[in-house]
Amino acid sequence: MGKTILIVEDEQNIVDILSFNLGREGYDTLEAYDGRTGLQLALEQSPDLILLDLMLPKMNGFEVCKRLRDQGRSTPVIIITA
Questions:
Q1: pLDDT value of residue 1
Q2: pLDDT, tens digit, for every residue of 38-75?
Q3: Strand order in the sheet with 49-52
Q4: Residues 13-48: pLDDT tens digits?
Q5: Rounded CA gap, 82 and 43, in Å?
Q6: Longest dimension (CA), the chain
Q7: What distance in Å separates the CA atoms of residue 2 and residue 70, rounded to the nearest whole number?
Q8: DSSP letter string over the chain?
Q9: CB 3.0–4.6 Å: which of 6, 9, 40, 57 could bond 53 by disulfide?
Q10: Positive/negative CA dihedral, 26, 27, 29, 35
Q11: Rounded-to-10 torsion of CA 39, 64, 17, 24
């Protein structure tokens, strides 16, 4: 099984492009379209990397990252934002 990357992004077309290209490179992906779901997936699935947008519905990316760190998670996070 390959490494898993969680994509937390509210724009479908960006998620589709990232998922497609990461899949071609052998990565498994999980997708979330809002911060609350992204946080839940990050805690339940323990991905190897998180690609995180900042401007998200339900919970912004800063809060998602803060709550992950508050839970003791050190999963690498790459911020993707305009």
A1: 61
A2: 999 999 999 999 999 999 999 999 999 999 999 999 99
A3: 28-32, 4-8, 49-52, 77-79
A4: 999 999 999 999 999 999 999 999 999 999 999 999
A5: 26
A6: 33
A7: 27
A8: ---EEEEE-S-HHHHHHHHHHHHHTT-EEEEESSHHHHHHHHHHH--SEEEE-SS-SSS-HHHHHHHHHHTT----EEE---
A9: 9
A10: negative
A11: -60
Task: Give the pair of three-digit tokens for residue 78.
Answer: 């790459």
Residue type, 18: L
CA 43, 16, 33, 76 dihedral sign is: positive
Tokens coding 35: 């911060």
